[in-house]
Amino acid sequence: MERDSPLRGVTYAMRIGAAALVSAWLGGCAGPKPAQAPPQQAAVVAPAPGGGVLRPFPPTSGFIDCVPYARAVSGLDLHGDAWRWWPQANGRYARGNVPRIGAVLSFTRTKSLTRGHVAVVVAIQNPRQILVSHANWGSDGDTRGVIHERQPVIDVSPGNDWSQVRLENTLGTFGRTYPANGFIYQPPMTTRAGG
User: Fold this and answer.
1) Predicted pLDDT of residue 163
2) Contact, 55 vs 75, CB < 8 A?
3) What local confidence, expressed as pLDDT, does residue 33 receive?
4) Which residues are within 8 A (CB) of 145 and not within 5 positions of it... i.e. 6 or more apart?
5) Residue 48, C-beta contacts closer than 8 angstroms, at least 6 positions apart
6) Nearest in space to 66 (alpha carbons), one of 97, 105, 98
7) Which of 4, 8, 87, 168 stands 20 to 30 A from 184 (CA)?
8) Pick from 125, 128, 131, 84: which is nearest to 103 by CA?
9) Count of Cβ atoms closer than 10 Å to residue 148 Cβ
10) What is the reported pTM?
């Protein structure tokens, strides 16, 4: 006798695919490369002021980590823990120490950032201050697992090379110093003939 089920008619492959998408989405800053990328929100992607492209992130009320957020907004095809992005980008994307809109600021893996961290540059205020949008930054339940938009970041490195940064916290002051690898740049935009 066959029972009625909300999954009746859904193939085994469809169930596995859905499970893989949920697992990849919830994997946050950790995990292997997902079997299939999460669905992208349909939207017009246009250059941001300053040359980069910022893609919309679908609204969510769920917990979100830095990696899926940065991947979706920047469009960079990098996966795994955030600290793996810097070496993974080598030979695939240009990297450097000058902020650009749409670039990903890569934080070094440390004792407090065991998986590293990534944030997307959304504005440049001056040569030593930028605004980033990122997810899962903070130390309490109100700041963990949520998206933080246009958060100020300052370069405090002695060589003005963005290798040491501080982020503004919810109190309006700049917190501790974090080591950073630098910026991973989006590839140059190309225009297709006839379209």
Assistant:
1) 98
2) yes
3) 40
4) 62, 63, 64, 65, 135, 136
5) 54, 101, 102, 122
6) 105
7) 168
8) 131
9) 19
10) 0.72
Residue 29 has what pLDDT? 52
Longest dimension (CA), the chain: 74
Q: How far apart are CA 187 and CA 95, in angstroms?
A: 10
The runs of H, that is alpha helices, within 29-168 are 66-74, 85-89
Output the six-digit token pair for 153: 């970041």
Alpha carbons 106 and 85: distance in angstroms, whole number: 7
DSSP-derived 3-state class of residue 82: helix
Taking the chain (195 residues) in runs of 10, the rounded mean pLDDT of each run is 42 43 40 39 43 80 92 95 97 97 97 95 97 88 85 97 94 94 88 47
pLDDT at 139: 75
Catalogue the long-range contacts made by 146-155 (C-beta closer than 8 Å, 24 or more residues apart). Answer: 146/63, 146/64, 147/57, 147/60, 147/64, 147/69, 149/122, 150/122, 150/123, 151/119, 152/125, 153/105, 153/119, 153/129, 154/128, 154/129, 155/127, 155/128, 155/129
DSSP string of 14-67, one letter each residue: HHHHHHHHHHHHHTTT-SSPPSSPPPPPP----BPTTS-B--------S---HH
Amino acid at 38: P
Cα–Cα distance between 171 and 164 in angstroms, integer?
A: 21
